[in-house]
Structure formats: C-alpha cells, structure tokens
Design brief:
Layout: E1 18-26, H1 35-42, E2 47-51, H2 53-56, E3 63-71, E4 79-84, E5 87-92, E6 94-95, E7 101-102, E8 107-108, H3 129-162
Antiparallel strand pairs: 1-3, 1-6, 2-3, 4-5, 7-8
Organism: Sesamum angustifolium
Protein name: DUF4283 domain-containing protein
Length: 163
C-alpha cells in the first residue's frame, strides 16, 4: 500500500504518477551543500521533501542526496546547468530505484511497451483473498492437529511410564 498526498483529480483505478524518490547530485561543489542551494537544485527535478542525514551533516561530500517528489509522467531530468559567477557547471542527476510507470494504464511496475492493455503481456492476476484465507485456515488446522498428536503421544508415553 502506498500513501500519497490527496489530489482533486484522484481516481482510485489509477496509481498516482507522483512518487518520492531519493536523488543524488554527484560531484557537487562543497560550497553548495547548503539546504537552500540543494532545495533550489531539487526544484529543477521536482518538489524537494527532505535532505539525507549524511548530506545535512556533510559527512560525505562526494554527493548530495535529496528526497524529491517526482512526476513519472514527465521525463526524468538527467542533468542541468549551474551558473556560478559566470562559469557553467553541468550537474548530473542520479535517481535511486526510479519505478517504471505505464502512461497507458496508469500503473506502476511496467512500461507502456509491456502493458497488458495494449496486448503486449497477459493481464496480471488479482490475488483471490478467499482462497488465501482458506489455505491459511487449512495450515492452522493442520498445525493444530500435528500439535495435538504430539501432545497426545507425550501424555500417552507419560501414562505408560507411570503404569
């Protein structure tokens, strides 16, 4: 289950295309490891949510990590330009585990080319909860029966030893 910010265009049959992702800015100049600067850069990608603890504490200056709310309907930005006193620096953007999002059926987990709506793949089966519940009951009953048999044999052995 995913929890996300409510939107007036919410449709329960569609998954939200807006997801929080950890984004890395590798080889960022050390003087840009400030919250305001990092959030300004994160705004280029999406809506910044929070900084990684290592980034806040400047424990590692090899890359900065920011959790950013990203819309998967839009192409993910791979790099952008930072102008520092007239010098342009190309800043790479690395996404940690960005999920696939199908723009056709509006679900996370596959791309449009693999979508069952288009007929490229079989429709994923929905789990039958009734069968799962019955299987769980059978397992519990079998476990209880097994325990009862063990308990009986222990009592039987104890009573046989007492005689």
């Amino acid at each position: 289950m995913r929890i996300f910010k409510w939107d007036p265009t919410f449709n329960p049959s569609q998954e939200s295309s807006v997801v929080p992702l950890w984004v890395e800015f590798p080889e960022l100049p050390a003087h840009l490891f400030q919250k305001d600067a990092l959030f300004a850069m994160a705004n280029m990608v999406g809506t910044p949510l929070q900084l990684d603890d290592y980034t806040v504490n400047q424990a590692t200056l090899t890359c900065a990590k920011v959790c950013i709310e990203v819309d998967l309907n839009r192409p993910l930005l791979e790099e952008f330009i930072i102008n520092i006193r007239g010098v342009n620096l190309v800043q790479k953007v690395v996404y940690e585990q960005a999920p696939q999002y199908c723009k056709l059926c509006k679900h996370i987990g596959h791309q449009e080319k693999d979508c069952y709506v288009r007929g490229n793949a079989p429709k994923p089966a929905k789990p039958n909860l009734r069968h799962k519940a019955q299987a769980r009951k059978r397992n519990i009953v079998q476990q209880n029966r097994g325990y009862s048999k063990k308990e009986f044999s222990l009592h039987h052995s104890a009573s046989a030893a007492a005689e």
